[in-house]
Amino acid sequence: MPEIQLIETGDGSHSLLNVALNETYHSRHGAMQESLYVFIKQGLDFYNTKYQSENIHVLEVGFGTGLNAWLSFQYAKKHSVLVNYTSLETYPLPHALWKQLVYADEVDRKYFDALHEAVWNAEVKLHPFFVLHKREESLQHFNPSTNHYHIIYFDAFAPNKQPELWELPILNHAVSMLAPGGVFVTYCAKGQLKRDLKSLGLEVESLSGPPGKREMLRAIKK
């Protein structure tokens, strides 16, 4: 496990710093506001509003702090939509570290803890509207049925820190898992990423980014 440090971001919410990479798990400008905007508003809520689905399958690349999963869990409860949430992570956080993260109030803390305490590599029904499947493996080695996921949260470390996850063959592998009409959403807005996603047949949108970032990307599988 690489050295990881707890930090506070601009909106007062926690993130983590991978010391070796000098890379944070979330935006230093605000972890909570970034996840809410990029993955919930432009990903989950966008898809749910567009299709009014009662059963949404989400694939997350990078479980990390569990923040995206936590916010998706809250969304599922609020909107009474079943979210089947699969998350990939090669370096799960130790108990002593994730216990320091404060994203939930005292009433809901038990649910946040349950996300982290859920066993790996098995489906766990945490709520009637939320099923979690954490997998301790890389995207490169993950091989589910294709055309399965409605949304992909692509939340890997930045391309200059973790370039292998942003190469065309790996993006193609991820896109192959999207159902027709599925949504690929990420905080990254690199020109090469736009070109690669377009070459894979996706309709790519450049959207205004969260605070501190000019743009983000959303792409839809035709």
Q: What's the number of structural domains?
A: 1
The description of the largest β-sheet is: 8 strands, mixed
Mean pLDDT: 95
User: Which architecture per CATH?
Assistant: 3-Layer(aba) Sandwich
From N to C, what is the helix and strand string?
Answer: EEEHEHEHHEEEHEHEE
Shape: globular
Strand portion: 25-35%
How large, in whole angstroms, is the Cα Rg?
Answer: 16 Å
**CATH level-four homologous superfamily name:** Vaccinia Virus protein VP39
**Total beta strands:** 11
As residue ranges, the low-confidence spans are none
- The span between the termini is 39 Å
What is CATH's topology name?
A: Rossmann fold
Class, according to the CATH hierarchy?
Alpha Beta
- In which range does the helix fraction lie? 25-40%
Total helical segments:
6
Structure description:
- This protein has helices at 31-51, 67-79, 95-98, 109-117, 168-175, 191-199, and strands spanning 4-8, 14-18, 23-24, 55-61, 82-88, 122-127, 130-135, 149-154, 178-186, 202-208, 215-221.
- The protein has 222 residues and is an alpha/beta fold.
- The strands form two sheets. An eight-stranded mixed β-sheet has the order 6-7-5-4-8-9-11-10, with helices on both faces. A three-stranded antiparallel β-sheet has the order 1-2-3, with no helix packed on it.
- The protein is globular and about 45 Å long.
- The mean pLDDT is 95.
